Amino acid sequence: MTLHLDPRAPWVVSTHDLGRRPGSMREMHLTLPAPADVGVDMIGIPKDADVKLDLRLEAVMEGVLVTGTARSPLRGECARCLEPVTSETEVSFQELFFYSAEDAAEDDSLLDGELLDLEPTFRDAVVLTLPLSPLCSEDCTGLCSQCGVRLADAEPDHGHEVIDARWAKLQGLVPEHNNDQES
Ligand SMILES: [Zn+2]
Ligand SMILES: [Zn+2]
Fold first, then answer.
1. Predicted local confidence at residue 162, as pLDDT
2. Are 72 and 80 in contact (CB under 8 A)?
3. pTM score > 0.90 for this model?
4. I need a surface site. Which of 7, 73, 116, 145 has the fewest CB within 10 A?
5. How far is the CA of 125 from the centre of ligand 1 (A)?
6. Closest-approaching ligand to the CA atom of 146
7. InterPro entries from the entry (predicted)?
8. Nearest 5°: phi and psi at 14?
9. 27: β partners
10. At 153, is the secondary structure helix, strand, or coil?
11. Cβ atoms of 54 and 90 closer than 8 Å
């Protein structure tokens, strides 16, 4: 379980200023570009959108405890009417990054020297908060089941006459009849 972080990667944060003395603390305020593919089916954070982070780093015995909030724009589509949906998300997270793999469990996060990678923590926190069925508005009425028009854009009394099955059959015959005449 070794990792080698790229110090130039935007979500890799240095703890150099923090040191390792338990109890020392630093606050950081960063704006980072959103990584690709942070989201679920219908909604997510646009790649490279500004993610504003307020972070508190605390040195503890085993590692560095990071507590933070992240704010970013969201883009997706309404689960009922498929119109574009834009909104914002704010998530909170807390993660202990261990100095040594010996103290950490399989799924725990590790420091690479003085570096830690916030991206997986951020990604997990966001995905947990996203709505599986985002809506353009709480009372979105969706699409007409007959013609697919967006009901919010349609006449208030939008509807379709139910055609009697026998008439439907006759209507189906009309074009054939016309074709016979033309030929
Ligand atoms: Zn909608
Ligand atoms: Zn309709």
1. 75
2. no
3. no
4. 145
5. 26
6. 2
7. YceD
8. -90, 135
9. 56
10. helix
11. no
